[in-house]
Amino acid sequence: AKAAGNFYVPAQPKLAFVIRIKGINHIAPKPRKILQLLRLLQINNGVFVRLTKATTQMLQLVGPYVAYGEPNLKSVRELIYKRGYAKVNKQRIPLTDNSIIEKSLGKFGIVCMEDLIHEIYTVGPNFKQASNFLWPFKLSNATGGYSVKKALHFIQGGDSGDRELKINNLIRQMN
């Protein structure tokens, strides 16, 4: 199959939603800096991240402090509609109508909520501007609590690290 070149490799997910689940104490400088770069300054903050080689390595380094995975369209839509805030002139403004989006992102062809959701979900050419325009999502504590220990990796029955498609359940609990 390899010689013929007819084997199928599933595409890597392009989009991740990262939620900070650990507090601010006892974090080494390097992971702390990465959390700052990801704009995850408070516990239960969430951001959309484009998955590249660089961001994947960053997420591995901050794995113990965050939960991340591949959100589906329903999750992206619910988050933006319910918890979406815009960053306009360094201020946090609720996304009440499309004019806010049009003023800031109109030049990139994003004029309404659905354009914004589409750009984020498909990781389009203006993903960076769209993602930066959204203030980091302030989520509530997971209803029903976390699993046994949130410090353990997801594979070991904890909460931190990569949980791929299961991130959607966590988003439901926290939104």
Automatic annotation (TrEMBL):
GO biological process, one term: maturation of LSU-rRNA from tricistronic rRNA transcript (SSU-rRNA, 5.8S rRNA, LSU-rRNA)
Keyword Cytoplasm in annotation: no
Any Gene Ontology CC annotation: preribosome
The keyword Ribonucleoprotein appears for this protein: yes
Transmembrane segments: none
Pfam families for this protein: Ribosomal_L30
InterPro entries: Ribo_uL30_ferredoxin-like_sf, Ribosomal_uL30, Ribosomal_uL30_CS, Ribosomal_uL30_euk, Ribosomal_uL30_euk_arc, Ribosomal_uL30_ferredoxin-like
Gene3D superfamilies: 1.10.15.30, Ribosomal protein L30, ferredoxin-like fold domain
Domain Large ribosomal subunit protein uL30-like ferredoxin-like fold, chain residue ranges per copy: 16-66
Keywords: Ribonucleoprotein, Ribosomal protein
Molecular function in Gene Ontology: RNA binding; structural constituent of ribosome
Membership in a protein family: Belongs to the universal ribosomal protein uL30 family.
Name under which the protein is recorded: 60S ribosomal protein L7-like 1
Gene (UniProt): RPL7L1
